Amino acid sequence: MTVTEAITRAHREEWARVVASLAKRFSDLDVAEESAAEAFAVAVERWPVDGVPPNPGAWLTTTANRKAIDRIRRESKRDDKHREARMVSDDEPLEPLGAIEDERLRLIFTCCHPALARETRVALTLRMVGGLTVPEIARAFLVQESAMGQRITRAKAKIKAARIPYRVPSAEDLPARVSGVLAVLFLIFNEGYLSTGPDTDPVRQDLTAEAIRLTRLIRTLLPDDGEVAGLLALMLLTEARRPARVSAGGDLVALHEQDRGAWDAGLIAEGHRLVRERLAAGVAPGRYQVLAAINAVHTSARDVRDTDWSQVVALYDQLGRLDPSPIVALNRAIAVAELDGPDVALAAVDRLDLDGYHAFHATRADLLRRLGRSANARDAYDRAIELAGNTAEAAYLTRRRDQLAVRPS
């Protein structure tokens, strides 16, 4: 492994540990973030000369602590904040890395605190836990770099001003707070899975990979939480299909048209194993576990004709009881079309109030096409294309529309 590869790996594996350790010691996310970044900058200078240390994480944590202490000492001379800092000696032994595992969990809960706006939680988690740079986060969510920087800065200031506690929630608050963390990770994954920006790649593997990595971390820290396992399974089974999702021409490839031989068998096996584990637990599943089970049915079929649509509909019925949203009803209708026909599905779809949602119009267009109502299908495709934010999806919808019978003059 080259030094550059070692630094990249250390950043991926140790950033959250280092930031979490500093956040605990100094109770200041600014100090934690900036000192961690300085430590990695020192590694870039020193490791090519001195060699990669035997324990990169411990080296980075020690270096970051010293940088933090230097910064606080400088500030204390200016504004007499010395007494407020949780000062330690440069030579004080640090906790072994294994002892601060739960500090990363504390950091995640802090970044995903419900007092922060949803988009702010996403940005702060990617920065503080994921280690993405501000420019990277700004590009991912199509925001100006300066605006994203201000968003993260304001979030850290709010945490400080509101004295949001740096701790794992109490037992009674934990389920709701875990749900909030998982929602943030799902948002990150979905933005990568189907990017909404017109000038971005239609599928952002960097974001899907980061969401999976962070969810694996949560899974390690909360191994008995069924919804954590469910979300990880859902992500893995969705990511497994990524190689077949976009054609060489840049069109989205619908599930029934995908080359299933291109799917990632390893991710599918891992996702199925997690789904089976949750079923064996005998505990009523949550939303992510049901979604994972639906994806397990799809990825179990070697051909779309082998899909057990009755099981998919039954799972959507179960999901509808947990999440009675029109989007769940829309997805259920897509499965119903395979069981009972497009006319039954269209009747269900037309009862939904989703006019501003591109997938609603795309679904209607496909059902109308299958019913031979080309003119109505064309109008629905036009509306779906107008609303679609993903370039590959818009290209797919355009192709499907253009394959319709020519509208009579």
TrEMBL record:
Gene Ontology molecular-function annotations: DNA binding; sigma factor activity
The keyword Magnesium is assigned to this record: no
RNA polymerase sigma-70 region domain segment(s): 14-77
Residues annotated as domain DUF6596: 177-277
A Pfam short name: DUF6596
GO biological process: DNA-templated transcription initiation
Database matches in Gene3D superfamilies: 1.10.1740.10, Tetratricopeptide repeat domain, Winged helix-like DNA-binding domain superfamily/Winged helix DNA-binding domain
Domain RNA polymerase sigma factor 70 region 4 type: from-to ranges: 108-159
Entry keywords, A to Z: Sigma factor, Transcription, Transcription regulation
Coiled coil: none
Similarity annotation: Belongs to the sigma-70 factor family. ECF subfamily.
Protein name: RNA polymerase sigma factor
Organism of derivation: Cryptosporangium phraense
